[in-house]
Write a structure and sequence with these properties.
Layout (H helix, E strand, L loop, with lengths): L1 H16 L12 E7 L4 E10 L2 E10 L2 H14 L4 H15 L5 H8 L12 H18 L6 E2 L2
Length: 150
Amino acid sequence: MSDLRDLYQEVILDHSRHPRHFHALDDADRMADGYNPLCGDKITVFLRTKDGRIEEAAFQGSGCAISMAAASMMTQAIRGATTEEFEQKFRAFHDMVTGKVDDGAAAERLGKLIIFAGVSKFPVRVKCATLAWHTARSAMEQRPEPVSTE
């Protein structure tokens, strides 16, 4: 189990140090800002959608390793998803990191995102892990107000 935990930490650190899809998306048709005042994480999520599907997802911002890794991996996970699939992934991720479902139940639906399961043991980090997801959801719903984890 220690080897698996070490691997998960390595993946999180890699995505934090070298985030994927870390750029503004000039042709985004949906965008939202998010802020976690507890940790200082700030993020902007950019989405380009077409026919009810997320064609492209990107983000910019700064924050702790968990926040940046979660945003990086989220952009990979939601690309190509329909609105309904996005909502299912959002709910599954949120339920996993808040401890509402166990790792096994979440693993099938979340794939690589399962590495964030351990966050549920650290409630103060849940907001870091979910900020990008809440911000993307706000972008999908085209809500104008910034997202706050408070």
